[in-house]
Amino acid sequence: MIESYKLKLASQVAMFCNRLGMLDGYRFLRTGLVKSQVAILMYHRVVPQRDNWFLPFSITVADFENHLKYLTNQYTILSLDELVGRIYEKKSLPKKAAVITFDDGYKDNYIYAYPILKRYSVPATVFLIAGHIDSGELFWWDKIMYVLQHTACRTLELDEIGLYSLRSNDERRRVAHKLIKRLTSIPEQKKKTLIERIVGMSAVNIPAGLSKEMILSWDNVREMNHGGVAIGAHSMTHPRLAKLSPEQAKYEIIQSKKVIEERTGQPVTAFAYPHGIFSNDTTSFLKESGLRCALTSDQKMVTSQSNPYELGRIIAMETLGLFKTFLFGLHSDLDVTMSNTKEILEYGAKVVSKSLQPRR
Asked: Residue 264 and residue 21: Cα distance in Å, rounded?
């Protein structure tokens, strides 16, 4: 009851500080109002500059380094394993702590993020879509991005998804984002069929070496692992696990863990739910396979009472101001969830689109 009252008070303080731009002040006040909470940060891509592949969950190398500068000066950075160990052992958490994670397995994690992590001596965990490493296959959402950017078609029309104009680069980016969002919620087999049809209609040949340029190799994975980066599982193919049959979901979980352990020679103890979605069956399979924790995409902080198989994560937004907003728990105090971050992400997409326009 007391904690609920404190969170309501924090919400009011959050709103006031956000309007006045007093984020650091809010962080200070919040630590005195609520229990110790840890922000598990969720990154995807870290790239040199904005380009046609730049999505709302991507950040630039410069911004990533700014994040680490701030965190190493102001926070205790825990490894995911240390955080989970404290939760299991009922140990107290630091007042200001963060954990760094990456999803999917993009090569830029190795090329750009890994050297910065080493420079600042910061632990991190990379969650791999194991079936894509050294497979020669792009992630399906990157296939959509690539073919829509390179097709000569001026429109795209399918009965299942509607009619879209592709007359400008800006339109192509917007359509790609819409299709990716829509396809994410479609059953796996139907999604696969629609993606094949979109690629076929585009009449674009995806270069054979593009996957190698964009996705980590097992050599990259092993080097990072030996250099202190923990490796977690993120399924074999990134499906919505709760929408699969129990047998399929179990395969995606257990096989991804097995493949990574065979390739790295190290135990895998952490899992990140694809799309952040899980079910009771999913959790039971994780426990059965020996995985000690699982991460969602729910925008919530972690406490010592958190369920190890339902750990929330905070999107690592690009600019330091937005980054602090999410890091300080402001988003959760204002009841911002994954579903209603839409306005923030759409704003980010507009900024990216504007930055890509040629200057006059």
From this structure: 45
pLDDT of residue 58: 87
Say whether pLDDT at 318 is over 80.
no
Longest CA–CA span in the chain (Å) reads 61
Structure tokens at 184: 């994410």
Q: Which residue has the tokens 């300080």?
A: 328
DSSP track, 27-95: HHHHHHHS--EEEEEEE-EEESS--TT--TTEEEHHHHHHHHHHHHHH-EE--HHHHHHHHHTT----S
Q: Return the axis-axis angle of helices 2-20 and 23-33, rounded to nearest 10°.
A: 170
CA dist 140 to 146, 152, 278, Å? 10, 20, 20
Residue 236 DSSP class: S
Q: Which residue has the higher pLDDT, 317 or 203?
A: 203
**Phi–psi pair at 314, nearest 5 degrees:** -110, 125
pLDDT score at 281: 87
Token couple for 250: 């179990």
Q: What CA–CA distance (Å, rounded) separates 332 from 30?
A: 12
Contact 42, 315 (CB under 8 A): yes
**Buried (b) or exposed (e) across 252-272, using 16+ Cβ within 10 A?**
bbbbbbebbbebbeeebbbbb
SS3 letters across 260-309: HHHHHCCCCCEEECHHHCCCHHHHHHHHHCCCCEEECCCCCCECCCCCCC
- CA 350, 150, 162, 273 dihedral sign is negative
Query: Cα-flanking dihedrals φ and ψ of residue 145, to 5°?
Result: -60, -45
Length of the chain: 360
Distance CA 282, CA 268 (A): 17
Can you tell me which residue has the tokens 């925008």? 299
Say if residue 106's pLDDT is above 60.
yes
- Average pLDDT over the chain, rounded to whole? 84
- Pair type for strands 45-47 and 58-60: parallel
Distance between CA atoms of 297 and 41, rounded to whole angstroms? Answer: 10
Separation of alpha carbons 230 and 87, rounded Å: 18
